[in-house]
Amino acid sequence: MPAAATQTGTEPAPGAAPIAVQLQGITKRFPGVVANRDINIAVRGGTVHAIVGENGAGKSTLMKILYGMQRPDEGTISVDGTELTLSTPADAIAAGIGMVHQHFMLADNFTVLENVVLGSEPRRAGGRIDFDTARDRIHRISESYGLDVRPDALVADLGVGDRQRVEILKVLYRGARILILDEPTAVLVPQEVHRLFGAIQELTGEGFTVIFISHHLDEVLEIADEITVIRRGETVATVLPKDVTAAQLAELMVGSELPSPQTGVATVTDRVVLQGRGLTVRDADGRDLISDVDLTIHAGEVLGIAGVEGNGQTQLVEAVVGMVPLASGQLELDGTDITGWGTRRCREEGIGFIPEDRGRHGLLLEAPLWENRMLGHQTERPNSRGIWVDRKGARADTERIVAAYDVRTPSIDVTANSLSGGNQQKLIVGREMSGSPKLLVAAHPTRGVDVGAQAAIWDHIRRARRDGLAVLLVSADLDELIGLSDTIKVMLRGRLVADADPGTVTPEQLGSAMTGAAAAGRGGASAPMPDPVAQDRAAPAADPPGSPPIDVPNQPGSDHPGEQP
Amino acid sequence: MKGRLDPRRIGLSLVAPVLALVFAAVIAVVVLVVSGYSPKSTITQMLDYSAQPRTQVLIINTATYYYLSAVAVAIGFKMNLFNIGVDGQYRLAALVAAAVGGNVALPGPVNIVLMILVAMAVGAMWSGIAGVLRAWRGVSEVISTIMLNAISTAIIAYLLRPGRLAVQTQGSNNIGTKPIPESGRVGGISLIPDAGMKVFGLIVVAVLVGVGYSVLLNRTVFGFDLRATGGSQTAAVASGVDVKRMLVVAMLLSGAVAGLVGMPQLIGQSYSYSLDFPTGLGFTGIAIALLGRNHPVGIAFGALLWAFLDQSSQILDLEGVPKEIVTIIQGATVLSVVIAYELVRRYRLVAEQRNVGKALGETAEPPAVTTGAPA
Questions:
Q1: Chain A residues closer than 8 Å to B237 by CB
Q2: For A88-140, how does the pLDDT look when each residue is reduced to its tens digit (9 = 90+)?
Q3: Mutating which of B219, B222, B356 best tests the A interface, going by the most A Cβ atoms within 10 A?
Q4: CA-nearest residue of chain A to B370?
Q5: Which comes out higher in pLDDT, residue A188 or B214?
Q6: Rounded CA gap, A176 and B265, in Å?
Q7: CB distance B359–A410 less than 8 Å?
Q8: pTM here?
Q9: Contact at CB, A232 and B360, closer than 8 angstroms
Q10: Least CA distance to B234: which residue of chain A?
Q11: At what angle do helices B324-359 and B281-291 cross, to 10 degrees?
């Protein structure tokens, strides 16, 4: 079983197809962060090469580099053996690389034909667009690869699956031989996914190369010929799908090299702090984003929500802090009905909130630290008195947080932007722990944070929990979830589908439940049951003493996950 | 407070406008030379003319309403709202205030306060329409305020006719609202000796608005919410700001200040809203707010500079130089100032990151991604 940091595997290639795309030593730095570090990937022609990794692992940056949208600081890109410098997407297109973005780039009020030719219109003499030639070509491409695209349909009338095939066709129309598909299944329903995979197989059969980016692991296992895992900007492994399970991939993605955040003695009390009943959130079209979620968090309890991203965790968090309205359901905080309250009232009532995207939701990046300390608590002491901002109070308290939470900064007057991610996060954690909140809603509290800061943040959460804080923890880091939580619930497609006991569950079991890929597990770790985690909890004796679960954090792992029995 | 008074920081703030002005001046000189005029004599004439006491009073008076107009725009800018409608707001407000002031028989000071309040209310109402449309219907305030400008022009044309709000001005073809009675006027201040003219008494209002703007933004929770919303709407929402409400309130405030723009002129000089009441001040305000970077003191300098250019250029026509040269300077200033601010802003962000990194003795690579090795 793969456990710890794994070196880039040198698996035997499927067939001996020549390498179509070679990324060597790609490094990309942004101010304050290294997005990609020494990335090495070799993609063979005519295959599907999947790249998996958590959000923020550096997948997008890497693909932007390959598509010419960003220049790497170091490293080389070779296509079909020729080293290239890609300065713009036009260079990439000229080199035969095409990209289908996660968010479609189509003009709704244009027909498919018009969208496809947009930007590379074939001309007749006199400058008029030669639609007939274009239509013929679209028909031909569509038929060759089973894309089933009607050139004269209006894009506004098409469903997401159709639009995606239009995007693929657009790329093929421009002569791409290498297709980058960025999270192509994120927006599709299962039948459409099936269809997309059919089209991908047609394409690779014809010699096209597909780079497939995803974090839906069961899909990756189904479609990919090779899989590269990226974690924290580095390639951690390249594996063959036949050698790994979804759970093993999940573990490679999130890593388990860190000291496990052991919770220690249980501090759960009887006092209910947060009670949610039948929580339902719908999108603008009336579809359920979360459905009928019940949860109870006691004082001193950390409730962890496990789930692959995009399964409703974000909406659950935003509903609890009052950022999105509940379609139905009821929320009680410490006995007070807070259903329908706005964010400010919720916060004033004692909810601390660590948002999942600190740049977007947690900070005013161009404002000084002390103003960021006020953010979210601007109506509370010590930041204000009545309608007046209390600068002295806010600044003094910022100094306190900077000292207590070890925020490394030369001064509280520098902008939040100039701190590293870890220090920004420590400031946010310190801020949200201030004023003795009753409930802390923490979404990915240690995402993109270095090991030291991560351990510090865990310590702070643990300490506050001991003092009776209730915590709703959403995290993609399974070790963090297992280590910090008193109770774990698994969220899948907007529902809480399983419970897990953090005392006995392994990351693999949790991973299987998260991906809904329990039955696909091959490593022997997960029970072939639809709900392996709950199963496991019901029968904790499955892990007899003395024979710990196969996947123990800290256990030095093998270099080649695929070689495990 | 160390950070705010950091000389390096202030220096950086001044670099951008100074660079922009130098650049604009260079363009003006080039234009003058190309058109066959002597830049030296042109500039000398402008400076000489502006040194006259009378011109100085005119500059201060012009700057007064420019300042109010620019603050009205800046309130919107602070929240990423582009209130192009200051023009329509102040004209409509001045007309209604003038009509009220001319027709209400109240003791003087009460009448003055009433006119000011009416003007603010009308301005706020007019911009509030755009605020409500933006908050609840998603209509871009740029579009709605431009259209409201046109509508207010039409409304003013409709109302400013004999038999409605207007009367014939004695001894001229002009028509205007009934003059405000003597007691409802605010006399000037003899700030500059030998000018033969006085500075608007309502310059006091402009100063108060500037102080109020600064206090509101920097010292109140409301101002913090407003700046937070402008800085990052998503972060503001997560911090509990009701963005819809904020949009409406910010537009109302902007419109209320816009309502004041015409007051110094109305209560201090013309005493009536007539056909020749100054127009276009709202658009000038946009340029000055940009130039002054929405800062209460910066806007004051911007307003004075603009007023100086406007007034001192009056001499040029007499000397045979087209005074439109000043419009070129103003246009070039705004364009270059916007670019210069953005450059300085980016430089500042990068420089600060670097300085913080240096101060902490860290390498260029933070430890965020150095977790490859097992712990």
A1: 323, 343, 361
A2: 888 888 889 988 887 778 888 888 888 888 877 777 777 787 888 888 888 88
A3: B356
A4: A450
A5: B214
A6: 67
A7: yes
A8: 0.70
A9: no
A10: A361
A11: 30
Which amino acid is residue A499, in one-letter code?
D
| DSSP single-letter state for residue B231 | H
The answer to whether the CB of A248 falls within 8 A of the CB of A508 is yes
Tokens of A235: 């390639």
A323 → closest Cβ in B224, B238, B362: B238
- Span B75-92, pLDDT tens digits: 999 998 999 999 999 999
Residue A388 has pLDDT above 70, yes or no: yes
CA distance A455 to B131: 47
Say whether A343 and B238 touch across the interface (CB within 8 A): yes
Q: Is the dihedral of CA A296, A300, A305, A306 positive or negative?
A: negative
- All residues of chain A having their beta carbon less than 8 Å from the beta carbon of residue B226 are none
Please determine, for residue A294, whether its predicted confidence score (pLDDT) is greater than 60. yes
Q: How far apart are CA A153 and CA A36, in angstroms?
A: 41
Minimal Cα distance from A58: which residue of B?
B369
CB-neighbour burial class of residue A154 (10 A; exposed 0-12, middle 13-18, buried 19+):
middle
Pick from B365, B236, B375, B238: which is nearest to A422 by CA?
B365
pLDDT band at B147 (very low <50, low <70, confident <90, very high): very high
Listed residue (B122, B80, B63) closest to B97, CA to CA = B122
Please report, for residues A2, A225, A306, A316, the alpha-carbon distance to residue A242 in angstroms, rounded to integers and kept in the order given. Answer: 14, 9, 26, 35
> Is A61 exposed, middle or buried, given 0-12, 13-18 or 19+ CB atoms closer than 10 A?
buried
Q: Which residues of B touch A322 (CB under 8 A)?
A: 240
| Distance from chain centroid for Cα B200 | 17
Query: Which residue is closest to B225 within chain A, CA to CA?
Result: A378
**Average pLDDT for chain A:** 78
- Asked casually if ipTM beats, i.e. exceeds, 0.90, the reply is no
DSSP result, B65-117:
HHHHHHHHHHHHHTTT---TTHHHHHHHHHHHHHHHHHH----HHHHHHHHHH
Rounded Cα distance, A487 and A503, in Å: 9
